[in-house]
Structures are given as structure tokens and as C-alpha cells.
Amino acid sequence: MSIRLTERGAALTDEVMAAHLRDYADILAVLTPEECAAIASGLRKVLEDQGDTKLI
């Protein structure tokens, strides 16, 4: 099965994702780069354990 977004849907998706990423940046701003790396490493380990290797 294949689906496609309309131009309007694609534009809305871009807008929502940009806002979502800004929110994450604001939330994580309190952490040092080392803390962010440690969290990312731990989450990657959990994903790998669950068989999710798409982001590696």
C-alpha cells in the first residue's frame, strides 16, 4: 500500500515537525552535551534490544 500527502498535507507536516523539534530542543537545553550523549546511548540500547535498528 502506498499513500501520498497533498501539498497542503506535506506543508503541514513540515510545520508540525519543525515545532516538535523546537520543543525537544527547549526541553533538552538544560542538559550538557555529555548528558545528552548518555541518554541517547541508553535509549539506543533499549531500541536495539527491542529489535529496532532503523536509527543506527
What does this structure look like?
- With 56 residues, the protein is mainly α.
- It has one domain (7-50).
- It is 70% helix and 0% strand.
- It contains two helices and no strands.
- It has helices at residues 7-28, 33-49.
- The longest helix has 22 residues, at 7-28.
- It starts with 6 loop residues before the first helix and ends in a 7-residue tail after the last helix.
- The model has no long low-confidence stretch (mean pLDDT 94).
Question: Between the first and last Cα atoms, what is the distance in angstroms?
Answer: 26 Å
Helix percentage range: 55-70%
List segments where confidence is low: pLDDT < 50 over at least 5 consecutive residues.
none
- With helices defined by DSSP (H or I, 4 residues minimum), what is the helix count? 2
Proportion of beta-strand residues: under 5%
- N to C succession of SSEs: HH
Mean pLDDT: 94
Work out the radius of gyration. Answer: 16 Å
Overall structural class, as computed from helix and strand content, comes to mainly alpha
Q: Let me know the number of strands.
A: 0
Q: Tell me the domain tally.
A: 1
